[in-house]
Amino acid sequence: MKIDKTSGWGLALSGGGARGVIHVGVLKALDEAGIKPVHIAGTSIGAIVGGFYAAGITPQELLKYFKKQSWIRTFGLKPGLSAFLEMKSLKSMLEKRLPTEFDRLDIPFCCTATNIATGTREVLNSGNLHAAITASASIPLLFAPVEINGVKYIDGGVTDNIPSAALVGKCENILAVDVNYTAEPGSANNIKEIAVEVFLTVLKNNSKEGRELADQVISPEMGHDFDLLDFSKADELFDKGYREGKKWTDSILK
C-alpha cells in the first residue's frame, strides 16, 4: 500500500516577532506541494499567521499585509491607559477577516497563551478566536495583558514557544517551524538590545519541548540583523521561509 506523505501533518508555528513572516513562506511551499495541515497550533506571531491561514487567507495575502505595515502600524502601537501598548491594527484585521469562533475556521486551530496568575501555558481552542490570538501575541512589558473569562493572559512564548504539545493526538505527524535559531549571541549595548536578547533567551529555553515533540523541524539560521519588531525585511524573511519549506517538501516527496 502506498503511503501518502502529504497527509496527516500537524503544524506548530513558533513565536518570534517579525521573524514569523518565515512561517508565511513555509506555508507557500506547503501549498505548492499539496500539503495541507490537518491541524495548526501557533504561539504569538505563529498564532497570528496560523489563525489567518486556518481561516483561508493565502500566504500571498498575508505577505502583502506584513509588507504594507511597519512594525508600528502592524500592531497599532499606541499608549494605553495602563502605560501598555495596544494592538489596534491587528485587532481591526482580525475583525475584518476572521470569524469570531474557532469552530468556524477551515482548518482546526489552537494557540497557546500564558496565564499570568499561574505562570503556566494554556491551550486556547474555543470561545472568542480574536481574543485568543491577541492574548497569544501580547508580548509582556510591551502589550497589555488580554482578559478572557476573568483570566489575564500574555504571550504564549513565555511558557511554550513551539506549541507541538497542543498537537499531540490530533495528527499523525508534527512539523514544527522555529524562527529563532541563531548560532551566536547578539550584542547587548543598550536597553533595547538587552531586552531583545533576554526575550530571545526566554523563547529559546521555551522551545526545547516543542522541538523534541515534533517529528520534524524547520529551523532556518537567523542573523541578528532580523529585528524582532521590524517588518521592513518581510520579503527577505518570506524568501527564507519559502526556501526552507521547499527543501523540506522536496525531502519528504522523494
Quick summary:
This protein is α/β, with parallel strands linked by helices and about 250 residues long. It is built from nine helices and eight strands.
Please describe what this structure looks like.
By secondary structure, the protein is α/β, with parallel strands linked by helices. The protein is 37% helix and 15% strand. The chain has 9 helices and 8 strands. It has helices spanning 21-32, 45-54, 59-67, 71-75, 88-97, 129-136, 191-205, 208-213, 234-252; strands spanning 9-13, 39-43, 109-115, 120-124, 146-148, 151-155, 173-177, 216-218. Strands 1, 2, 3, 4, 5, 6, 7 and 8 form an 8-stranded mixed beta sheet that branches. A hairpin with a 2-residue loop joins strand 5 and strand 6. Helix 1 (21-32) runs antiparallel to helix 3, helix 1 (21-32) runs parallel beside helix 9 and helix 2 packs antiparallel against helix 6. The chain is globular. The model is unreliable at 71-84 (pLDDT under 50).
